[in-house]
Design a protein that fits this description.
mainly alpha; 1 helix; rod-shaped; DUF3265 domain-containing protein
């Protein structure tokens, strides 16, 4: 039972880590695009 719980916990941690990386990438792209648009004006 403990092994199953640890396995699920590790999957959750990996999922959250990948999601945070993906989300951070999109946020950085969005801010870069906004900065470029502001720089042109």
């Amino acid at each position: 039972m403990a092994i199953n719980a640890d396995g699920a916990g590790n999957k959750l941690i990996v999922f959250l880590w990948l999601f945070s990386k993906y989300f951070a990438h999109k946020v950085i792209r969005f801010y870069k695009r906004a900065a470029i648009i502001e720089g042109r004006e």
